[in-house]
Amino acid sequence: MIPIIDQILGSFSQDLGVDLGTVNTLVYVKGKGIVIREPSIVAQHKKTKKVLAIGSEAKKMLGKTPANIICVRPLKEGVISDYDTTLTMLSHFIKKIHERPGRGISLPRPRIIIGIPSQISEVEKRALLNVAAASGAREAYLVEEPIAAAIGANLPIFEPVGSMIVDIGGGTCEIAVISLGGIVCGRSLKIGGDTIDLDIIAYVRSRWGISLGEKTAEDIKITLGSAYPAQVEKEMVVRGLDLEKGLPKSIKILSSQVREALAPSINVIVGAIKDVIHDAPPDLVSDIAERGIVLCGGGAAIGGLAKLISQETKMPVSVDGDPLFTVTRGCAALVDNFDLLARVKFIKSG
Asked: What is the pTM of this model?
């Protein structure tokens, strides 16, 4: 059970649920909802490390900075790759939430629940707890993202039935079969939205000899990305740098070509889903075959992905109603419900 003093202090503080992602950071505030949805990017001076912009303002600078300014993604594949920059970013978001015009920052300090990839190391977990504490948290709890996602998707994870969740985020893909409040079997892949952007960049470079920026690749993914042929194929014109001539060049790219670029990563995800199903106990597989697989995360929005997975697994597949916020909703439910938090496996600071 959560100590009674925590319950008392929690009622006076703006406790937070955080989806600290490779691409985006989302923060839920108790009693207010999701108040932060910002890119996980920090722009800073290359030599002095002075922070110039964080979040959306920093993302606007991507690919457009002079040599003395760099844009840093402080998390890679769901874990901290730059401790100091992660601390700066999370502290900024927490202060932004607690600042009150003319009154400074309110106290007491918040309790924070953070969703984490299911298979990160103890060192990486400790680094996240240290960042949370240093950024102003009174206490921090780490909860595995598949559990948070399943709660956010309203799956009956505490019942003796099998639930399967696939969370395709920016840096990782979390696949898990859950029953009786715990993960029975699963995989954590270092494949996500960032990997797919790189697939598009590599494909265009190889096929047309054109270099694309990160933002252009992301736009192509959002507009044309698909995993299964559609009745009407789409196309768009993009501009990049002709590597042979060193000049700008425009090309027309088709959704079928983007699907070809995405195929290697999509195939790995589908293969891992089939492996997890193979590893699951037969009775839980039977439950999943009846209840279906739930997709969430930004990658769940890739056109035809649910249909492809259903075809390959011979099971029903659905996309959560608001897949970008599924993990955050799960963290929010844990922030709002002490009893629910006490029922799931978590790692606590201190």
From this structure: 0.89
